[in-house]
What we know:
single chain; alpha+beta; 8 helices; 15 strands; globular
Amino acid sequence: MCRWFAYLSPTEPSLLEDTLITPANSLAHQVHDHYLPQLIPHNPSDLHDADHLTTARNSLYNIDGLGVAWYTTSYADFERGNTGHSSDGLETEGLWPAVYKAVQSPLNDLNFRSLCRNTETRCCFAHIRAASGTPIATVNNHPFLFGRHAFMHNGVVAGFSAIKRAVCAEMSEAAFGAVNGGTDSEHLAALYMTYLTSGGDASAFSKTYGVREMEEAMRRTVATVIETQKRLLGSKAAPNSLNLCATDGTRLVAYRFRNHATEQPPSLYYSTKAGTTLNRKYPDHPDGIDIAGRFEGKDVEEHGKHLIVASEPSTYKAEDWELIGKNQCVLADPVSKVFEVRDVTYEKDWDAEDPSAA
């Protein structure tokens, strides 16, 4: 499965190099290497006790492309100027995402490394891809952008080709028209944007919405997929792995989901502490080593509040990371001081059987 990393803070910028490249288990290294505390044993003597399906769901090579979106005020600052108006009449205030996508390995991509070395942001979405049937091309790389909104996914919509037409029929004209690639993930994003904007036109992609509205749009997206599978595929419907994340640069909602009675979704963790270890301005190092000249002398207490949601921990302090439970969501809105980790809405008849387990 794919791997992704999200960082959100209302006040504390993060250098992309510190979060995405430097750690030994940074996203850039998760192309091949994985670290899953609380989920998969990492002591060789304990491996025989591991759920082999959970292991398989998290241990694929992620070699099919990378993408990173970071939020900045640059567009708004230049677009509004002294007039208070934008050139196209759309809302431009606040944070907007820039994006870089490529199909080569992140550690071998000099453009990616240069960008990360010289970019700071208070909101970042980054993703490395393990393709599941659609072409390896930048257009199919996450995150997917709809105006000021970004969306990414780790997992798979089971039998997507059989429900694709029906799913597209649920989309607004604007959301359907904004789909550029062929992945199940981008179609999930378009469905999410349809519900978030109440079927609005493209101008609705420029607006911001409350975190509760974002959560409801995510819930409806998941429900539509499962109910469409049940309607069109019946007993042949297989379970989905839907680790989903969406942001507008200020708020964030994330899902860890699988509609099976016992099987686990792909891994997903959160941390409200690891940002200090991932920032060279503060003491410590993500790998617990001492590098002369790295620390710039700021106290940990000075670090702003932040949230990281990621497929895998990227620092050596396992205690700084919490495994998000099966079928739980994370909601974060620093503006209204909302932070919640709780169960998602789940219908008992959503349980599906995994044919690979037979």
